Predict the 3D structure of the following.
Amino acid sequence: MDFELMDNTSYDGWKFFIACGEGTIFPKNVIRDVCSNKIPKGSELYDVLYSYTSFSIMSVERPAYRREDVFRLILPFLRAHGLSNTSLKQYFKNNLNLIPGSRRTMRFAQEISLPFIISSSYEHYVCEACEALDLPMDNTYSMSLDLDYWDISRDEESTLKKLGDEIASMPIIQRPSDEYTMDDISETDKNTLLRLDEIFEDELVGLQSFRLLSASSPLGGEEKASSFLDIRRKTALDADDVMLVCSTDSDSLIAHMVRESGGLVVAFNATPLALVSSDIAVVSEDTTILSFLADVFQSSGKSHVEELVENWSNDVIRESPANKHLINDLLNSSKLSAPLVTNVNHKTPTLFLDERFLQ
C-alpha cells in the first residue's frame, strides 16, 4: 500500500519521539477507572474480565484472547449503562489523568522532534489527551470505537446488566505459574473460564452488543508494530532516528523492531517483557528524565545517550549537551525522588540516591 508523506513534507534529518501511551504518557488503568465510575461493581467486573483475557491457555475449543481484549469485552456493559460517544468523551475530559510531567515532555518533544503516540486505549481518551498535550490527533494511533452506531434495546440492556452482575461476582482467575496447563488450575477457575466462554461465545451472539464487540479491536503488540511501520511509510524516517518509550507487555514487539533497527528504546516504569526489549531502563515518578534523554538523543544520537547513562552522575548530567533548563529540572526533581536509570543488559540496575543529585 502506498502512503503520501505527511503534509507532503520531507523529514530528512529529523528525530522522532514515539510514546506507547499506557504507562508513559497516561496511566495504565484508564479504562478500569471508567468502569469503576460508570458501572455498579465496575472495577470487579473489569478485573474478572482482565484475568479472563490474560489467561493464555488456548485450544481449538477456546477463544484466543489478548490482555488488551478486555477493552472490547467491557464495551457491552458500558453501553448497557448508558455510555455514548459524547458521554464517554465528556467523562475523559472531566477526569483526564496524565503522568506527571508528560504535558511538558510532549510539548518539548514537538519543539525538537516529530512526536507520535501509539495507544491501546479508546480514541475518545486519546483525543482528550491530545488537546491537553497540544498534539495533533493525526499523530496518534488508538482503538477506534463508535458506541452510538449500535442501538441496544431495553431487554438487551437488562440482559447485559444481569450478566455484568454475574461476572462481577465471579472470582478472579489465578495463574498458577508462568508455564501451566488446564490440569494445573483449580476447579473454580475452570468453571469461571467455561462460564465466561459461554457468555461471550454463545449468549451474546446475535445481540447488537456482540456486533459492537466484533467491530472493535484494541491495539495489541502486532497492531502497535504495524503503526510503527505506518509512521515509517508516511514520513520516510530512518529507524535509527527514532526514540521509542515503552511500558507494557504489548509494547515489546515494537520495542524489539526499533531496537533491532538501530533506534533508541527507553523502558519507562516498564513490565519485565517490555524491559528486555529495551536499551535503557528508567523508573521515575515523572517524565522529566524522558525530556532530558530525548534532548540528548536529538542533539547527539543513541551512542551518546547510552554512554551518558553508563556513567550516570551529577557531573555527567551537568556536562551533557541537553537544554540547561532540563538539566536543572532533572537535578531539582531528583532531590525529592531520584530516578533509576540504567543501560539494559550492561549492568545491574542501581537506585541513585538523593545525595548524588545534591553534590
